[in-house]
Amino acid sequence: MSSFRTISPTDTTSAVFHSYLLGVVAPRPIAFASTVDSQGKVNLSPFSFFNVFGSNPPILIFSPSRRVRDNTIKHTLENVQEVKEVVINIVNYAMVQQMSLASCEYEKGVNEFIKAGFSEEPSILVKPPRVKEAPAAFECRVNQIIATGTEGGAGNLVICEILLAHIQEDIINAKNQIDPQKLDAVARMGNDWYCRAYGDAIFSVPKPNQKKGIGFDNIPAQIRYSTVLTGNDLGMLGNIEALPTKEEISEFTSQSAIQEIVTNKHNSLAVKEALHQIAKAYLLEGKVKEAWLTLLQEGK
Ligand SMILES: Cc1cc2nc3c(=O)[nH]c(=O)nc-3n(C[C@H](O)[C@H](O)[C@H](O)COP(=O)(O)O)c2cc1C
């Protein structure tokens, strides 16, 4: 069993708490924000305090925080206070090193498109340009800026309403969905760590939506307290809408090699273990019904 470190933010330096927070609230997507100041000077900086918070109206929020180090504020915050517009560009793996370069603390007025080697593509509805290399970009109006404090480390929530989206055609699949493998997104973790959503790192979990799973509490105890099945296995089992019927269970027995295992009445523990292992293999293939039919052969 794990032991826990219990930490109060008031008993810890903000630098340490900041580091723990950013380490565990991870991975975080990255808003690569392009803004302009009142003189039209362009700025481009990454922010991983970022997410989508609604789709109608479509809302993105990111936070240029006060520096923990010296409580100074970021040029991006000053810019959105001066000109209430921003383009939020999405960062993929091909852009990650240049994006990191753009996060250097250059003097105000320095254009990080130039410093980091990105191409400025004029926006249609807002003044800040978008990053041509980005797989997606959102032209936004800044509706509100909410400061969450005045000390170093405090956030400034920049609430952005999307006016126009630009999405690279080749990341949209035949079903008109975004193909995550083609997006090849990167996200920020603690310290210098990043992660790449690509290859085996991407997997699917069918979402229940309107379906209502039976829940853990309706999983029979001999299955729920299995020494073979994990929390993920039980989560899949609990997501079924109804247990198979007696007829389905009997039919499954006659069809499968399971018959042989179940007839080994001398060793009920071995039967249980064997059935749970088979069920686990079905779950690995996403065959939840078959897993249930296997598990319910015990004590039938
Ligand atoms: C991937 C990444 C994510 C970052 N996320 C944030 C963030 O969410 N909030 C923040 O204040 N700074 C964040 N930073 C640091 C800013 O990008 C950095 O302070 C930058 O110099 C700010 O630029 P500006 O002063 O031109 O706005 C991040 C840096 C990187 C590389």
Automatic annotation (TrEMBL):
<keyword id="KW-0285">Flavoprotein</keyword>
<dbReference type="InterPro" id="IPR012349">
    <property type="entry name" value="Split_barrel_FMN-bd"/>
</dbReference>
<dbReference type="GO" id="GO:0010181">
    <property type="term" value="F:FMN binding"/>
</dbReference>
<dbReference type="InterPro" id="IPR002563">
    <property type="entry name" value="Flavin_Rdtase-like_dom"/>
</dbReference>
<protein>
    <submittedName>
        <fullName>Flavin reductase family protein</fullName>
    </submittedName>
</protein>
<dbReference type="GO" id="GO:0016646">
    <property type="term" value="F:oxidoreductase activity, acting on the CH-NH group of donors, NAD or NADP as acceptor"/>
</dbReference>
<keyword id="KW-0288">FMN</keyword>
<dbReference type="Pfam" id="PF01613">
    <property type="entry name" value="Flavin_Reduct"/>
</dbReference>
<feature type="domain" description="Flavin reductase like">
    <location>
        <begin position="25"/>
        <end position="175"/>
    </location>
</feature>
<comment type="similarity">
    <text>Belongs to the flavoredoxin family.</text>
</comment>
